[in-house]
């Protein structure tokens, strides 16, 4: 993998991370508002929270791999 490709992947990861952070804010607004939460399917909220957690973990692991790659090269 060349440096340009690594830089591009890091850019994609950062962009995805910003999107997940924004989605997490939206989730938190609904989760912390009892009135809004009562209008949303509870199962959907659980799944949404799990999806956000999974995405954050994947982004973190990918960033670690990219960091190791950059250290080696």
What would you say about this model in short?
The chain has 73 residues and is mainly alpha-helical. Helices cover 90% and strands 0% of the residues.
| Residue-averaged pLDDT | 92
H/E element sequence: HHH
C-alpha termini separation? 10 Å
Largest sheet, in brief, is: none
Shape: elongated
Structural class: mainly alpha
Radius of gyration: 16 Å
Helix content: over 70%
Total helices: the number is 3
Uncertain residue segments: none
Q: What oligomeric state do the depicted chains represent? A: single chain
Total E-strand runs: 0
Share in β-strands: under 5%
Would you give an account of this structure?
This protein has 73 residues and is an all-alpha fold. It has 3 helices and no strands. Helix 1 (3-32) packs antiparallel against helix 3 (42-72). The longest helix is centred in the C-terminal third of the chain and has 31 residues, at 42-72.
């Amino acid at each position: 993998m060349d440096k340009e490709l690594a830089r591009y992947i890091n850019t994609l990861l950062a962009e995805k991370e910003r999107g997940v952070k924004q989605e997490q804010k939206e989730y938190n607004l609904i989760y912390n508002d009892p009135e809004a939460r009562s209008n949303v399917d509870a199962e959907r909220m659980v799944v949404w929270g799990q999806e956000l957690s999974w995405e954050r973990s994947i982004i973190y692991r990918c960033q670690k791999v990219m960091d190791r790659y950059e250290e080696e090269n």
